[in-house]
Amino acid sequence: MFHRESGYFKTTYQSDMALYPLPIGKMAIAGFAVIFFVIFPAIMDDYYLTLVNLAAIAVVGALGLNILLGYCGQISIGHAAFMSVGAYTAANFAVHFDFPFWLSIPAGGIMAAVIGLLVGLPSLRVKGLYLAIATLAAQFIIEWTLNHTPAISGGVQASIEMPRPEVFGNVINTPMEMYFFLLPISVIAILATLNLVRSRIGRAFIAIRDQEIAAEIIGINVYRYKLLAFAISSFYAGVAGGLATYYYGVANYEAFPLPISIDYLAMIII
């Protein structure tokens, strides 16, 4: 049973803002580490490892959308489109410039963040249903652009075959190897998100979500933080798209249609 130890009090601001303020939190993290890094690999076959690998990719993408919608209150129905931007960017850098995964995946995230900034511009003037329609339009515009720009998407079939990722010279091929490749990345994404929402930026996001006018009155630059939320969310989506491309071995816009955007909305709501 999880419980709060009697007599443990937060006496400083640092302790109140600590990532794991209670000793039980550190113990729980250690327990989860044993489960995911020791027990699960020992008992799961390739089928279940494949499911967990897909879930690890989805975690990264869902965290990004949760930052935008859950913490900043800005809806997006074009999340899958930003994933496709990250996927094609990572694929082009990996294939044409021979970038390793640890460069091509962040590059995909950065490109998606740039596109997210542009798509986020309507959020400065509209909100709610109108913003949802604007992001929905971005989904179809990005899909059309990728499908009709061979220089980006690799030809008439709009697909680019990806090399397998390498770690210290070892090529990652099996579901087990991919598990140990994807799981640490998803853990890093979770920790980064936890730290972000506890920071000044995260508190500004929450203030905008709860009461935009009040946030502006107390000195928060609402426009800047809205755009920042779109950029951060799109960066996560781009990274998830890059991971998916390495996992599937091909970048294809058909892997990121509108239903995927709806799926991610369902993930963070449920």
Short précis:
The protein has helices spanning 13-16, 23-43, 46-71, 79-96, 101-120, 129-147, 150-153, 175-197, 200-210, 212-217, 222-248, 258-269; strands at 159-161, 166-167, 170-171, 250-252. By secondary structure, the protein is mainly alpha-helical. Strand 2 and strand 3 form a beta hairpin.
How many helix segments?
12
Walk across the major sheet and give the strand order. 1-4
Number of strands: 4
- Into which percent range does the helicity of residues fall? over 70%
Q: Could you give the order of the helices and strands?
A: HHHHHHHEEEHHHHEH
Q: Describe the largest sheet.
A: 2 strands, antiparallel
The unreliable regions are none
Protein name: Branched-chain amino acid ABC transporter permease
Pfam families: BPD_transp_2
Keywords: Cell membrane, Membrane, Transmembrane, Transmembrane helix
Membrane topology: Multi-pass membrane protein
